[in-house]
Specification:
The complex is a heterodimer of chains A (about 260) and B (about 325).
Chain A (H helix, E strand, L loop, with lengths): L1 E10 L2 E11 L4 E5 L6 H9 L5 E6 L2 E2 L5 H7 E4 L11 H6 L16 H13 L15 H14 L4 E5 L7 H15 L5 E5 L3 H7 L2 E6 L2 E7 L5 H8 L3 H14 L3
Parallel strand pairs in A: 3-8, 3-9, 6-7, 7-8
Antiparallel strand pairs in A: 1-2, 1-4, 4-5, 9-10
Helix pairs in contact in A: 4-5
Chain B lengths: L1 H23 L7 H8 L5 H35 L12 H15 L3 H30 L5 H25 L1 H12 L8 H19 L1 H7 L3 H7 L3 H23 L5 H13 L3 H25 L8 H25 L1
Classes of the chains: A alpha/beta (about 260), B mainly alpha (about 325).
């Protein structure tokens, strides 16, 4: 459904992502891995159309750049890295905003009963329904992250792009996030691509890995085919040793 | 729902009450019954002349100006996702003042003059806001609160200095410009009302039509764009319209600060952040607040008048400090 070929983009003439290619098929869950500053966020921004880019960017055979902002919003949603909100919308109002690309235009365009139902379902799915009347400025980082995820679901896109969606979540909600994304993509014709820093969480989420180093893809393929030695080289550390040590610390818990 | 209905009713009563107080109080006090009979063309002839010829146009212009500045402030804060932004703070008022003073000094009068003043106010306001945003963006592409507030402050001071220079060079107009710079609704007649009223209604209508866009803009460009809107185009249009609205208001009333900053905050606190509620609430709150400030301006030191801009600043400055430091305190923890 999504086809990215030789995509290049950057800031102020300085290239950050260089000639990168990948595809997303229905049901696929792609994780984008790589060290800080390798261009992961930039890549997501370019695919969403927030950042201008060169190269092929196609969704269902149509050039993504030719779509209007609204048309694009119906098909691709991005959950950006979180920043604290400045204005006190309620949880309900915030999630209902996800329906924006589906509303009519003009002064009388209001969310329909169907739009409200979608927002309600998304809130319930993420256990946020009891919080619906709270201002988002009063939420914890983790709660806000889930509210923004619910808004992304309420957008009912075909593809969700996620930029470090687990950064403010505790263990329980990290696991629930992965489950929610898995059930969202399973057998639905929908796909998700996300940047995760927690390697373990990344591997439990994804079926495909895009490993990036300095703006370029160094591995694109099945999770199981990812070579640990390659990971070590890209992250400039002994990744298998780190994971083993982590596991040993875990096994020593409780005496 | 019942709670929200109660709040709307309270706000409506507050607005109606402040209008009645504004028309009723002064050197001659008029009872609400006296006001209504004057409005219906009855009662004492002297009272009727006072109400219809002096008090009512003054109070209505004050209300419309307060509403226009507050609506402008609400939109500006959301469009720049910056709760500390305001048309006054961005130099719109000072720029509009400069434009309007130029018209006074050049002496455009008569039928053309009636429209030249608001037109010049609008042009000056728009030029100032564009300059302020261009400068702020040049220093800081993320347009952070501190940059926007500082740039606007420097530009406002700069424009005020040019205004001072203009009045010094044209002593005949010095007093008129000086008074105007401090803001006043004295002896403005109905002319301002008939120009400002349609501009306010039109702008408020457009802003309400774009209430959902404004909601999204408060989340920043990235999120707004990811949900399917074009934030840059939307922001340009909205800010230009804010300049039209506040420029027109300033052209009649002079420079009045802080209402545009304070009223949106109070409106959000009472009615939430969703613009379809915040905008009308800010209009009613700002309008009522301005009527009460003007009432204070003309009665506290009677028979002398205090400039209404001084009253709004006396009340608004401490409030500004409160939200500024509260915000910084919150950012620290």
């Amino acid at each position: 459904m999504l086809k990215v070929e030789k995509l290049s983009c950057g800031y102020g003439g300085k290239p950050v992502v260089r000639e990168l290619s990948f595809t997303l098929s229905p049901g696929q869950r792609l994780v984008i891995l790589g060290p800080n500053g390798c261009g992961k966020t930039t890549l997501l921004r370019a695919v969403t159309g927030i950042l201008p880019s060169t190269g092929l960017l196609e969704l269902d055979g149509r050039d993504l750049r030719s779509l209007s902002a609204r048309e694009r919003g119906k098909k691709i949603a991005l959950l950006p890295q979180m920043s604290p909100p400045g204005f006190s919308f309620t949880v309900w109002e915030t999630v209902l905003m996800g329906r924006y690309p589906h509303l009519g235009r003009g002064i009388f365009a209001a969310p329909s009963a169907g739009d409200r139902q979608v927002a309600e379902d998304c809130l319930k799915k993420l256990e946020l329904w009891p919080e619906r009347d709270r201002p988002i400025t009063e939420l914890s980082g983790g709660q806000l992250q889930r509210v923004l995820l619910a808004r992304t679901f309420a957008q009912t896109p075909e593809i969700i792009l996620l930029d470090e969606p687990s950064s403010h979540l505790d263990l329980k909600y990290q696991a629930e996030l992965v489950e929610a994304l898995k059930s969202w993509t399973a057998g639905s014709g929908r796909a998700a691509a996300g940047v995760f820093h927690d390697l373990d969480l990344a591997l439990s989420f994804a079926d495909t890995v895009l490993l990036m180093d300095r703006g370029q893809a160094v591995y694109l393929g099945d999770v199981k085919g990812l070579d640990p030695a390659l990971l070590s080289r890209v992250f400039e550390m002994d990744v298998p040793a780190y994971m083993r040590a982590s596991r040993e610390r875990w096994e020593q818990l409780g005496g | 729902m019942r709670k929200a209905g109660g709040k709307c009713l309270a706000l409506g009563l507050f607005a109606a009450g402040s209008l009645l107080l504004g028309v009723g109080l002064g050197s001659v006090s008029i009872s609400p019954a006296g006001i209504f009979s004057a409005l219906l063309g009855g009662g004492d002839e002297g009272i009727r002349a006072l109400v219809l010829g002096l008090r009512l146009p003054r109070v209505v212009l004050a209300f419309l100006t307060g509403a226009a500045l507050s609506v402008g402030g609400t939109v500006m804060q959301s469009a720049l996702e910056n709760p500390l932004a305001s048309p006054f703070g961005l130099g719109v008022s000072a720029g509009a003042g400069l434009g309007a003073s130029a018209v006074m000094v050049l002496g455009v009068t008569g039928a053309v003059g009636a429209f030249a003043l608001p037109a010049a106010g609008f042009a000056g306001g728009l030029a100032a806001v564009l300059l302020a945003l261009a400068l702020a963006r040049a220093f800081d592409s993320r347009l952070s609160s501190v940059t926007v507030v500082l740039t606007g402050m420097v530009l406002s001071l700069f424009f005020s200095a040019i205004l001072d220079l203009m009045s010094a060079m044209n002593p005949d107009y010095a007093q008129r410009i000086g008074l105007w710079q401090m803001g006043s609704f004295a002896a403005r007649g109905w002319q301002g009302v008939w120009v400002l009223l349609p501009v306010l209604l039109l702008c408020l209508g457009v802003f309400l039509g774009r209430a959902r866009e404004l909601d999204l803009l408060t989340f920043g460009d990235e999120q707004a764009q990811a949900i399917g809107m074009d934030p840059r185009r939307s922001r340009r249009f909205l800010i230009a319209l804010v300049a039209v609205l506040t420029g027109t208001a300033v052209a009649f009333a002079g420079i009045i600060g802080f209402v545009d900053l304070v009223a949106p905050h109070v409106a959000r606190r009472l009615f939430g952040a969703a613009h379809r509620r915040t905008l009308p609430a800010a209009a009613l709150l700002g309008g009522s607040f301005m009527v009460l400030c003007d009432l204070a301006a003309r009665t506290l030191a009677s028979p002398r008048e205090i400039p209404v801009g001084a009253v709004t600043a006396l009340l608004g400055a401490p409030f500004f400090l409160l939200i500024f430091f509260k915000k910084r305190g919150a950012a620290r923890c």
